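Rather than argue in generalities, we have chosen a single entry, letters for residues, whole numbers for local backbone shapes, without further comment.
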Amino acid sequence: MENYFNITDVTSFWAHSQVQLYEAFINRDIFKFRNALKQGANPLATTSTDQDLCVLFRALQTSGCSLFVEACMRCSHKPTNLTDFYKKAINFASASEDCELLLTLYRSSDVKIRRKYFTLFALNSLVKKLNNQNVSHIQKSIRTVLNWGISQNVPDQEEMTPLHYVVINTNLNEDIRRQIVTMFLSQSNIDIDTFRGGELRTILEMKYPDLLMPQKITTVQSLKNRLIAGNLDLFVQQYTNNLNCINENEKWELLLESIIREAHKALVVILSSGVNYNKEADFLNAHIHSNTANSGTLSENYEIPMTNFTAFQVACKSGNTYALEKLLQMPDIRIDDNTLQQFIPLMIYHVKFSVSLYQNYWDCFQLLLDSGKIDINSIDQHKRTALHYAIEYQKDELIRILLKKGAYINVGKGEHELPLNSLQPLLLEQHLDDCITSNNLNLGEKAYEIKISFKNFITSQQRSEKKLKEVLTPIQCMVKSKEHCYLLQHPVISSILHLKWQKVSQIFYINFLFSLFFITSIIAYIVLNFSETKHGTALNISYICSCLGITYLLLRECLQFILAPFKYLKSFTNYLEILLIIFSILVCYYNNRDLEVACILLLAFELLSLVGSLPIDSISTHMLMLKTVSKSFAKCFLFYSIFLFTFTLCFYIKSDEASKEKKSVNRFSDPLLAFFKTIVMFIGEIDAEDLNLNSGFNCLLFLSFIFFMTIILFNLLNGLAVSDTQAIRNQAELNGIICRSNLLLGLENVYIKWSEFICCLYNPFDFVPNYTTDIEVIFRPNDKNKIISHKTISSSFNNWSHYLSNRCPTMDKHTSVRALAILKRKSAKNEKVIRDEKLNLILKKLSFKN
């Protein structure tokens, strides 16, 4: 038999498993049979002595071997010629007179194979084998096949239908023939007029005048039967001749039938005739071919909506690539916004049953993406995009192609439901690498350009405007995710932050200068006010400057509260700044040293916060070290403070009663003083003068304090601090990126949300800087990293800042170096692939010569 392997051409291991397969079948040992299949035995392989009967075909022609047939159909080996295979397989199963074998073959095949090959061969194969001896078995099989929904109107190459073969069968006596003819005539939609010029009706009326004949079928039903039978040339001819007799609804039904049956030639003719392919209808009104009530509704068989389905949806659900391509070419085709969200689960469902069927759906998926008529970032009722579903089902190939087509990673119901949260970091990194391309010049040339695309960080509106606005939400998710945090150093991410920072960095620096001016003025006023030598002029100047600084702080805090009230109230720093404003006002009007001390402390905190917020690696690293060590110390010390309070009480109780009257800080006679003294001793200032160490118990208590508190706990806290600082130093650059991201996120949330409000009230002279950035950037790494595609919308602020910098925008050095490294790695990988392909080609040529 062609298209199947020869058992003599395989390796010894494979041959051993093949022999085991044959022996297991001969002995009817299903367990050894399945084991041989697991070891790689091919049930489609034939021996040199019997070219037609592989193990599967032998099982199909042997009654009671349905388990062996099922095992063979579920193995990984598939036939290359499906038509030849199923024609022979159905014939063997029909000849066995075992209905269970045919049922097993049917159930083990995927939907498209059932629809096509069983429709073509099953009934015809059964009726041709009918005789008086096997009629009971064959008739049972015929009823089973009809209950599957297999059409009884499909002719063979001779235009003979199954009923036609029954009528002319001379191996059946008259009573049995009449019984079977009656069974066929009782079927709905039986067609005895379409084929062979209506010859079958003439024969039936002549032989069985007493039987009730079905009414002559309509033109549309005849056309449907042509589609089911696959007689497309005759369908085209008949459809063209009767076009004036077919109404719009019937055209639409024929269109659906041609899509489901994959009758491509018929589809083209129907579309060219002017059918309304956008029509929506209920499946109850769509008379798609169905033989029995048990065959299932259109909605159940093809998994389409029960109401308001269109031809486009049927093409998608049935995986008909050709029909989908033709429909997408229609200029006015209507497509559901959530097509991709509905299509992806369907693909995943079908991959379980057939790889070939999944490939059809994959081709349809690519057609949808390439058509340009589908918005891959549309949001369904659950606030999810197609990328959400692809990530949910963990299909890397779907995720890659969606990201490549520009699927957004910053669209979701909330920050915690962005696609980024469940996206594998390695997969995202590979895609970000693909977002970096070059102009393919030599790496050393001055005109060599690197292009970085930000297509996955924009929304549909931003894409149409070709501007990048709200992009920092997914980046903030990376900041919070330990798995994705390292991607902040990727050139795509760092370039976004760099471009945004170039746009708005002046705001932060101006705020820093104004705040520094205020801090300097108020400190100068406090110092001059308490100086023994009065400097009237200097004091007045510092007072005026302090008032100006306080006014600036008031305006800044009010603006922050107006633009983001909830976020403002959640920040502890804002409350300290409010206290600073209050104390500064009081200091200007009252001479109180406590107020001035508190004000100076708050000023120091404000200055520390301002300096630490600057995205400079060295500064942000030290600020982060301070915060991290403080939090770490507070968490640990909160737990270990149990020891501190314990020893405080012990020292207080054991203190010398005679010294109670002395209030020196060196005494333990007062509980509060004892607590302060214990803290001082904890940091190493040991003073046992006030402890009575004459008794052994007091000595043991003091040694316990030294051991647990001064030695163990103090060194433990130091060790934690060293560990934290070392970890922070190791990622100093990453810390700077995180700091910059946090700064920009705050500005983005305020600026984007209230941009119109700000421009209307506070930007009469176009003073607010433009925050948007191009959706891609091109720069030259060999020409001082100059950005050549980055265009800034003109504004007074941008012109002024450009005048101050007096230079073209550039990409930062770290981003440029990493982008070059990625391009070199990709280039080396491509060169390796090309070398391997050339080597394989040479080896093939050498093997052909030998």
User: Anything to note?
Assistant: The CA atoms of residues 425 and 483 lie 7 Å apart.
